[in-house]
Design brief:
single chain; 4-stranded antiparallel beta sheet; 3-stranded antiparallel beta sheet
């Protein structure tokens, strides 16, 4: 099989390929959006307030605590310039966090498919994250699981359910720290 020649592509296909070759947008130059979760009841568009509503033709977003200050920063890949953009989260909110890195010993080494639950004092429900491989279009966020814990006073325990079904429980992690768990 070879590449399709010009005579093998419809007029619409030719027009689309021209747009791509010229580096123009085919999504309408939609601005980036960022929504705030209002305590699980609704969402508010805060894009312009936090200067996230960039006119870039975005293709990928990866989240990572790049500066290791406890909040998530963003790397964005765009079709047009700038092709890569870093957005540092400079929030002044003094909120607690926990960062968890998993390493499988009995399950897959990357621990893909593991579920981590963090139980904090005075909360009925744990904060839960699942480690996934590929969580965005054309991007992969950090494999470190980030738990925003707000104004929690302490962490009671962490539970890890590994892909092989084994569950481990840990006590003693401190707020605003990172931990490595093997299992």
């Amino acid at each position: 099989m070879g590449d399709a020649g010009p005579s093998d592509v419809s007029a619409q296909g030719q027009a689309f390929l021209k747009v791509v070759r010229e580096g123009r947008s085919f999504s309408g130059r939609e601005r980036h959006c960022l929504f705030l979760n209002n305590a699980g009841k609704s969402f508010s568009d805060v894009s312009s307030v936090v200067e996230f509503d960039l006119p870039d033709d975005g293709r990928a977003l990866a989240q990572v605590d790049w500066d290791q200050d406890g909040d998530l920063d963003f790397w964005i890949a765009n079709r047009n310039g700038p092709q890569v953009r870093f957005l540092e989260n400079r929030s002044s909110a003094n909120q607690h966090f926990l960062s968890v890195q998993l390493e499988g010993t009995e399950s897959n080494r990357d621990a893909i498919g593991s579920r981590v639950r963090v139980f904090v004092a005075n909360e009925d429900r744990p904060v839960t994250r699942t480690l996934r491989a590929g969580d965005s279009f054309l991007a992969q966020s950090s494999k470190r699981l980030h738990f925003g814990l707000g104004d929690a006073s302490s962490i009671e325990r962490i539970e890890v359910t590994w892909p092989n079904g084994k569950t481990q429980s840990f006590t003693g992690p401190r707020l605003d720290s990172a931990c490595l768990i093997h299992g």
